[in-house]
Amino acid sequence: MKLDEVTISKAIVESFSKDFTKALEIEVAIAGAGPAGLTAGFYLAKKGIKVAIFERSLRVGGGMPGGGMMFNKIVVQEAARQVLEEFGIKYIEYQKNYYLANSLEAVSAITYKALQAGAEIFNLIGVEDVMVKDERVCGLVLNWGAVKLANLHVDPLSIRCKTAIDATGHDCEVVKKLEEKGKVKLNTLSGKIMGEGPMWAEKGEAAILENTKEVYPGLYVAGMAANAVCGSPRMGPIFGGMLLSGRKAAELIIERLR
Ligand code: 48F
């Protein structure tokens, strides 16, 4: 059968443009496709909410594929075992309360399920700013990841959303930008970004659900961004908290939107 290069190009450009145009006005926009952002996207899409995830890197998964110091395994505790099962991720019990999974299988399964549920994922597109009107985050400002890498002076494009989630991990980039430019008071103890604490897995995992919340009208935090914004410890390659935090962010937003 004849294959035409231009038809291939047209198929890609037309279909991407259609998907991206739909994402310009969306119910929930998520910054970062690490485990927390992907999990939030899955649970939102499963409830029929229009959700798009913007990931600055070429690949999704954030810190998950790297496991612990490049040993590509992750540990999940009992509290999140049901989420592993929901995603169909295989695991073995290493010891009571320590379940081990392959980090690549975990990322692939969560990504696949999120896409199948209807979440849109745009890789190579980063969030560089927020749109704020009447003291509420009402959109995200996007640019190509490559533009940032190359330090090019290229103006961004904006999307409108009812709610946004900062799931950008340790650097909590969206909240940071909001604080820096909006001079706003955040819903944290100090009213500011409190900064991530040093490693303490148990305390970090215990705090993350409480930290998963709306930190400014229209902007939620999930995953390590939640602990970084609220001043709780990091926890290394245990991932139950990331999955549960993504799920909680989705539940809070579903309750608000529906
Ligand atoms: O860092 P990341 O995996 O965050 P997470 O979902 O999970 C944290 C764990 O990986 C691990 C841990 C477990 O205990 O501590 O570190 O909270 O994923 C964050 C994603 O956001 C992307 C980044 O490339 C990564 O894939 N990202 C960061 N800044 C931006 C962004 C941005 N400004 N716009 C879009 N994506």
Automatic annotation (TrEMBL):
Organism field: Aerophobetes bacterium
Which keywords appear in this protein's UniProt record, sorted alphabetically? Answer: Iron, Isomerase, Metal-binding, NAD, Thiamine biosynthesis, Transferase
Kind of enzyme, top EC level? transferase
Recorded hits in Pfam families, A to Z, give: Thi4
Residues bound to glycine are R234
Necessary cofactors? Fe(2+)
Name used for this protein in its record: Thiamine thiazole synthase
- Is the keyword NAD in the record? yes
Catalysed reaction, written as an equation: hydrogen sulfide + glycine + NAD(+) = ADP-5-ethyl-4-methylthiazole-2-carboxylate + nicotinamide + 3 H2O + H(+)
Name the NCBIfam families on file. Answer: sulfide-dependent adenosine diphosphate thiazole synthase
Q: Which residues bind Fe cation per the record?
A: D155, H170
From the UniProt record, give one GO term of the biological process aspect: thiamine biosynthetic process
EC number of this enzyme = 2.4.2.59
The record's annotation in InterPro entries points to: FAD/NAD-bd_sf, Thi4_fam, Thi4_prok
Which residues are involved in binding NAD(+)? A36, E55, R56, G63, V127, H153, V154, D155, M224
Subunit composition? Homooctamer; tetramer of dimers.
- Biochemical pathway: Cofactor biosynthesis; thiamine diphosphate biosynthesis
Biological role:
Involved in the biosynthesis of the thiazole moiety of thiamine. Catalyzes the conversion of NAD and glycine to adenosine diphosphate 5-(2-hydroxyethyl)-4-methylthiazole-2-carboxylate (ADT), an adenylated thiazole intermediate, using free sulfide as a source of sulfur.
Q: Which family does it belong to?
A: Belongs to the THI4 family.
Question: A Gene Ontology molecular-function term?
Answer: isomerase activity
Q: What is the lineage of its organism?
A: Bacteria, Candidatus Aerophobota
Return the Gene3D superfamilies for the record. Answer: FAD/NAD(P)-binding domain
